[in-house]
Amino acid sequence: MGKYYSNKTLIYLDQFAISNLVDQEEWFELRDLLYHGVQEGVFLIPYSAEHMLETSVRTYEKAKAADELLFSLSRKFALDSEPMITTCFLLFAIRKVPVDYRIFSRIVQAPALEGNAILKYQLLNRTFREMVGESTMLLNLVRSVGNGKRADNQLLQIVLNEKKNQYLSDLLVRLKAFSLTGTYERQSVAFSMITIPYWADIIMDGLIGNDLTQVEASEGVRLLSQLGLNIVPTIMIRASLEAIFSVKNQKETAADHLDILRLCVAIPFADVVVTDKSKVFDLQTLGFDEKFQTELFSGSTKDIERLHDKLALLMH
Predict the structure, then answer these.
(1) Which residues, 6+ apart, have CB-to-CB distance to 185 below 8 Å?
(2) For residue 122, what pLDDT is reported?
(3) What is the pLDDT of residue 131?
(4) Over the chain, what is the mean pLDDT?
(5) Burial tier of 5 (Cβ tally within 10 Å: 0-12, 13-18, 19+)
(6) From the CB of residue 131, how many other CB atoms can be counted at a distance below 10 Å?
(7) Which helix (DSSP H) or strand (DSSP E) does residue 188 occupy?
(8) I need a labelling partner for 138 at 20 to 30 A (CA). Which of 14, 35, 178, 257 fits?
(9) Which conformational region is residue 194 in: left (phi greater than 0), alpha (psi within -120 to 50 degrees), or beta?
(10) What is the pLDDT of residues 46-92, one digit of tens each?
């Protein structure tokens, strides 16, 4: 039935969908159908770290209701974080281990936003927004005086290639160094409120934590040089969605970057993804719906009706 589960359909719900399932009466019929499908073992609806960050900014009552709804639908099943999944993609490719549900799934024991825990996620959300604000301030200023027109497909391809090559280079430099010396040069990213490791260092630490050898690092270099980011779909999707901001001359917000974190994990694994209309357009423009055999739905009335019909059919 699904890409990774022969008898289940994996359905990824973006934050607006979770909120609407709680708040909007016109979504209640879909909510009941989702519950029924989960109870029958036909639907698999994952919990996620990004959900906790986004939900935490609502009032406590609404945040708790949304969190409990998603946890109930998930039945303790969750998608792992992007760095963990990216690490696994690389490690599985290097060690020639077939990709299955182990690459993306984990178990959560309880809803995250219980009691004072919501304060922790509110702080994380605030820090994340401040980091995105600092890193995009100049870029957004430049875009604010642009003409706002979308670039043509030729420019899109140029920007896509540049973005993907930068991500690829970051990984190759570190893997090459490790293959030769058993170590690599670390890099940090400093913000006014916090200093964090560079994204590729987090991946390398994950690989080394899984006992990556120098020989395996050399194999990683060979595979990435030969196949590019095809062996790490999470990074390919992230780079592509970031590139589309540039060609659309669009300002970047923390919410946009949370969407990217969500989608680079959801698209490779989910059979159905419910996300906002603009992201559906971007993903279809990039061809990711076809590439990853993922059916996309927005929050429009037409799409929600279409989703309801699809899920009802799967129940029979």
Answers:
(1) 174, 177
(2) 86
(3) 87
(4) 90
(5) middle
(6) 18
(7) strand 188-190
(8) 14
(9) beta
(10) 998 788 888 888 888 888 899 999 999 999 999 999 999 999 999 99
Q: Which amino acid is at 271?
A: D
Nearest to 307 by CA among 37, 299, 69: 299
187 Cα distance to chain centroid? 23
Quick one: tokens of 103? 């690459």
**Burial environment of residue 151 by CB neighbours within 10 A (0 to 12, 13 to 18, 19 or more):** middle
CA distances (Å), origin 252, targets 66, 83, 148: 26, 21, 13
Position 83 scores a pLDDT of: 94
* Identity of the residue numbered 212: L
Model pLDDT, residue 141: 59
pLDDT at 56: 84
Instruction: Note the Cα 15 to chain centre separation in Å.
Output: 12
Report whether 109 contacts 76 (CB < 8 A). Answer: yes
* Angle at alpha carbon of residue 275, lines to 111 and 89, rounded to 5°: 75
Q: Name the stretches of the chain with pLDDT < 70.
A: 1, 138-152
pLDDT in tens, 290-310: 999 999 999 999 999 999 999
Containing 221, the helix (H) or strand (E) segment is helix 214-227
Which of helix, strand or coil describes residue 314? helix
217: its two tokens: 């690092």
Rounded to whole angstroms, the Cα distance separating 206 from 174 reads 13
| Residues 9 and 272 sit within 8 Å (Cβ to Cβ) | yes
Q: Which of 4, 74, 12, 11 is nearest to 39 (CA)?
A: 74
pTM value is 0.91
d(CA 191, CA 196): 8
